[in-house]
Structure formats: structure tokens, C-alpha cells
Amino acid sequence: MITVFTPTYNRAALLAKCHESLCVQEMKDFEWIIVDDGSTDNTVEKVKEWMTIATYVDGQAICGVSEKGGFAITLVRQKHGGKHRAWNLAAQCAKGELFFVLDSDDQLLPFSLQYISELYDTVRDNPQFGGVAAQKGHFDGRVFGPNSISGTEDMSFLERKYIKGKKGDKCEVYRTDIIKAFPHPEIEDEVFCPESLVWNRISTRYRLRYSERIVYLCEYLPGGLTSQATRRRMTNPVATLMTYSELVGYDIPFLYKCRAAINFHRFGACLRNDECINGTDNGKPVRKPHVGWIWYLLWPIGRWMNWRDRRMVAKK
């Protein structure tokens, strides 16, 4: 029913709690795919300890069954290339109808997968829906973000974030076939791609049924992606610019378009004019992102913000 995907990079010590939360799930009809993004710690050995049977497939994947939880585990290793590449790889391996992303330092509640399955049953036969979503919460029970969901609400990711203003991370669970149809672009020498780039694209075709219930527990660690957001975007400018250039073209309020244009120029300063862009986006070559000429009126603000970013990064 569900593929639970966990990308990990030198998080062997944290994976144990993630595994424990899966072992106590009320619903057992799921598989766990772990993609190790070139870790140098004992991640592989740790995962193999949890398996009753650990067999190599094609010399790359290690497959087995959780001794404690009874669910299938697949561990795939890749050269360090970022969460988005791990995501694409896991999607190709996934056998579940739904694709549930569970980060290595996060946990689920015992009813989480069962609840997601039941929520999905309410929209399974409606082609307008690409999946379901629920709340993320802190470990102390507080909901992430302001203006949280009330009851159940039907909307796209773009509508939720930019029209209704219900911000904060949510637990979006899409059909696996949709995840496969909307892969992350892979840019040479870049190890980060904003997840919102894909969520926004999916929003043009599909909605989600959001629930107010918390099913996902997390805290953002100092070494996590969120704490390094600015630096990540500066050092991975192509995928970042793709995200903002496309956001300008969506049907969202004008203020958000302006912010996207400013950020486009802000991180565009990190892209060298002579830089050759090598990469693929759903099988097609990636071209240099751009925005309409009218948005260049905001160029000075973006470049000032880039100057501020460089000073901040230099101090750390």
C-alpha cells in the first residue's frame, strides 16, 4: 500500500528511532526504502542488523525483512548526490501505491500509516486528487506553522501555501506513479534541489486532501537542510533559479511573484555568466532559467540581498 522512503547521509545514530517508529505501526502493509547518499559512517551495518535476511540484489541493493517489525527493507547506496537524487532512485524502486517521505531524523506515530491509508481511500477514485496530506508536529505535540488545517480541506500545494496562507511544513503523500512522472531535475555538480519545485509542478494537475491530524513528528537539527537553506541555495543555484523562475509564472498573488523574482536575482548572482549547465529535467536538457523583462525592475533588491548573504556566509 505505502512505500516509506528515507534518504540518509551520515545519520546512522538517528535511523534507529526512525526504524522503531515504523516497527510499531498499526498497519503492516508497507515497505521501507532507505537510500544512503554516500555515507561514511556505519549506516549500512546498522540497517543490516535490523534484517532477518539480508541479501544483495545486483550488487547494489540490500534487501531483507525487519526482524522486529516484519516489513520489507531495501537499502540502496548511491554516490553522494543529494536528497533529490536519492528521491528519484527510491521512486524507481518503489512498489507501494503511495510514496511517503520520512526523513532520517524524524518519526511517525503508531497510527500514522493506517490513517494516511484511510484518508487516501476517501479520494482514491477521484482523478483530481494526487494524494493526501496531514500535519507535521513537534515532539511536544505543537503543530508546525501558523494557520493550520481545520478538519479536512481540499487544495493543491500552491493553493495551500500561497492562496490560503496555510504555511509550515506538512506531510504530503502522493501516489507513487505521480512521483515517478514528476522527478527532480538532476544538475551536474549540484547536490540540492528545492522540494517545492516538484510540489509546485504537481499542483498544476492535482489536488490533495489535507487533514488536521498530526501524523509526523520532527525537529530541525543544526546539521539539517533547513538550517542551511541560504547556503544551500547559493551553492546550488541552477535548481534554485528553476524554482523561482517557475513560481513567477504560476497563478499566485502578485506579492509572492515579486518575492520569487527578487530571490531569482538574489541567487542568480551565484551563477556565473559563462557557466555551462549540464543536467536533465525529466529526460530533457536543462536550460538556463530566466524571468520576463518586467521582473528585472527588482534586480537591485535581489543583488543587495545577495551581498548581504555573502557577508553572512563569510562570518560563519
Quote the CATH topology of the largest domain: Spore Coat Polysaccharide Biosynthesis Protein SpsA, Chain A
Q: Please estimate the helix content.
A: 25-40%
Secondary structure category: alpha/beta
Mean pLDDT: 92
For the biggest sheet, the summary is: 11 strands, mixed
**What Rg do the Cα atoms give?**
20 Å
Superfamily (CATH H level) name of the largest domain: Spore Coat Polysaccharide Biosynthesis Protein SpsA, Chain A
Terminal Cα span: 45 Å
Question: Oligomer, anyone?
Answer: single chain
Q: Give the DSSP E fraction (strand runs of 2 or more residues).
A: 15-25%
CATH class of the largest domain: Alpha Beta
What does it look like?
This protein has about 325 residues and is an alpha/beta fold. It folds into two domains: about 220 residues, Spore Coat Polysaccharide Biosynthesis Protein SpsA, Chain A, CATH 3.90.550.10; about 90 residues, no CATH class. About 35% of the residues lie in helices and about 20% in strands. The protein is built from eleven helices and 14 strands. The strands form two sheets. Strands 1, 2, 3, 4, 5, 6, 7, 8, 9, 10 and 12 form an eleven-stranded mixed sheet that branches. Strands 11-13-14 form a three-stranded antiparallel sheet, with no helix packed on it. Helix 1 runs parallel beside helix 2, helix 9 runs antiparallel to helix 10 and helix 10 crosses helix 11. The protein is globular. About 40% of the residues are buried. The mean pLDDT is about 90.
Question: What are the SSEs and their pairings?
Answer:
Blueprint: E1 2-8, H1 12-23, E2 30-36, H2 43-49, E3 55-57, E4 61-65, E5 72-77, H3 83-93, E6 98-101, E7 107-108, H4 112-121, E8 129-137, E9 152-155, H5 157-163, E10 170-175, H6 176-181, E11 186-187, H7 195-203, E12 207-217, H8 229-235, H9 237-249, H10 254-268, E13 279-281, E14 284-285, H11 299-315
Parallel strand pairs: 1-2, 1-6, 2-5, 8-12
Antiparallel strand pairs: 3-4, 4-5, 6-10, 7-12, 8-10, 9-12, 11-13, 13-14
Helix pairs in contact: 1-2, 9-10, 10-11
